[in-house]
């Protein structure tokens, strides 16, 4: 006998959970399917930075703000610890300082500050590398991604009655009927949040969307003699990668200097993100390499580029690498967010960027409003 729901969500990553929350809050009976036993895709492998500053100007930035607010609310309700608040971008070069100072003139800079070197050294004594200043944004949150996914799913189940069907693959959506590896399920509507799996559901439609997959290296490290991060830490290499900064004219000069001085970092897509956990260890990343089928390897040479950049900011290299992992995520240079409607009662929601988790909860609200009116 088939079960009956108002909404089926395919995918138990952060996008799936966000859509489940928005639908459950509007009184719908929701079921979430995931082929894995728990979230184990990008949402469980990321450093868990919910970012605002650096997002593209306009609608995307407003979405990031809204999403961050829901993240904060969900974290409190689902007993997810917010490990860190705020983002410190260490400007290692005068060209970066110019970009960051120029950003302060935009309407996205509310609450942000740039501290020139002398002041920055006093305020952020943990950064012992060469620097021209530190930019501070108070808007970011950081959660420990893997446990956060499990806690949010448990809270959705307990507080909102969302049903979860783990280890269940959805192989087809036929009107209001889902074909799953454990039998059929009836749902009035379906949202597909399948992450970087573009080949199972609506593969034909997704094939025309310029999508690829990005592989990123991550490490967990520890400084023997301690290091206390003031917030999430980034550096010069992040600026050309974050559209909110990259779109400023000053970024051209920075990029030219980075191309001359750190070509290997650019070639491997390295942009520093370092986020501290409750036990003092740091989650550090990340590289970026594109391929339709990313290879499974994590070369030491690329990890070294990431650790070199951390050392340039902190002034020393961590002695202990506690673990290493790779993750993959959907990527589109043209369309960082995709909301497709392959049928009147079906939506495909895809975050095709390295910041998809940040936008997730606002996207969930938008899709559910679009689907149910
Ligand atoms: C290393 C790394 C660092 C990152 N850093 C950040 C960051 O700091 N901040 C940020 O905002 N973003 C970050 N990102 C990007 C972010 O993680 C992703 O954009 C986001 O997690 C995508 O969420 P998702 O739910 O769409 O995909 P996923 O988390 O991949 O979830 C998709 C789920 O769908 C399931 N699924 C797929 N097809 C089916 C099917 N047919 N039937 C059943 N189940 C199915 C999969 O098993 C999977 O669990 C990072 C990504 C990586 C890999």
Beta-strand content: 25-35%
Radius of gyration from CA coordinates: 21 Å
* Bound ligands: flavin-adenine dinucleotide
Q: Order of helices and strands, N to C? A: EHEHEHEHEHEHEEEEHEEHHHEEEHEEEH
Shape: elongated
What does this protein structure show overall?
Keywords: Flavoprotein, Oxidoreductase. The strands form three sheets. Strands 1, 2, 7, 8, 9, 10, 17 and 18 form an eight-stranded mixed beta sheet that branches. This protein folds into two domains: 1-48 and 144-211 and 332-373, FAD/NAD(P)-binding domain; 84-141 and 212-329, D-Amino Acid Oxidase, Chain A, domain 2 (2-Layer Sandwich). The protein has 373 residues and is of the alpha/beta class. It contains twelve helices and 18 strands.
């Amino acid at each position: 006998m088939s079960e009956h729901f108002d909404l089926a969500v395919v995918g138990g990553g952060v996008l799936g959970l966000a859509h489940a929350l928005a639908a459950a809050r509007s009184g719908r009976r929701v079921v979430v399917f995931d082929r894995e036993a728990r979230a184990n895709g990008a949402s469980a492998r990321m450093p868990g930075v919910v970012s605002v500053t650096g997002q593209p100007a306009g609608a995307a930035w407003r979405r990031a703000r809204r999403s961050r607010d829901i993240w904060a609310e969900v974290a409190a309700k689902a007993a997810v610890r917010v490990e860190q608040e705020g983002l410190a971008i260490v400007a290692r070069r005068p060209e970066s300082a110019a970009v960051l100072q120029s950003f302060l003139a935009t309407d996205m800079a509310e609450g942000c500050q740039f501290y020139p070197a002398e002041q920055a050294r006093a305020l952020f004594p943990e950064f012992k590398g060469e620097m021209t200043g530190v930019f501070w944004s108070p808007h970011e949150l950081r959660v420990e991604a893997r446990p956060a996914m499990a806690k949010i799913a448990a809270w959705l189940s307990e507080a909102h009655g969302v049903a979860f069907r783990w280890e269940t693959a959805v192989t087809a959506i036929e009107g209001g009927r889902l074909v799953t590896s454990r039998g059929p399920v009836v749902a009035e509507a379906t949202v597909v949040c399948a992450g970087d799996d573009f080949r199972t559901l609506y593969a034909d439609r997704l094939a025309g969307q310029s999508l690829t997959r990005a592989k990123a290296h991550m490490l967990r490290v520890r400084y023997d003699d301690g290091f206390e991060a003031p917030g999430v830490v980034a550096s010069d290499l992040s600026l050309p990668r974050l559209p909110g900064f990259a779109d400023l004219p000053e970024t051209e000069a920075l990029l030219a200097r980075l191309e001359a001085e750190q070509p290997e970092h650019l070639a491997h897509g390295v942009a520093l993100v370092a986020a501290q956990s409750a036990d003092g260890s740091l989650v550090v990343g990340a590289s970026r390499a594109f391929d339709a089928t990313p290879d499974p390897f994590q070369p030491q040479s690329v990890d070294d580029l990431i650790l070199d950049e951390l050392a340039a900011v902190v002034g020393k290299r961590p002695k202990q690498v506690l673990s290493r992992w790779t993750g993959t995520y959907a990527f589109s240079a043209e369309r960082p967010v995709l909301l497709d409607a392959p049928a009147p009662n079906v939506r495909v929601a895809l975050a095709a960027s390295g910041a998809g988790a940040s936008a997730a909860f606002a996207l969930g609200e938008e899709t559910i409003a679009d689907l149910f009116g």
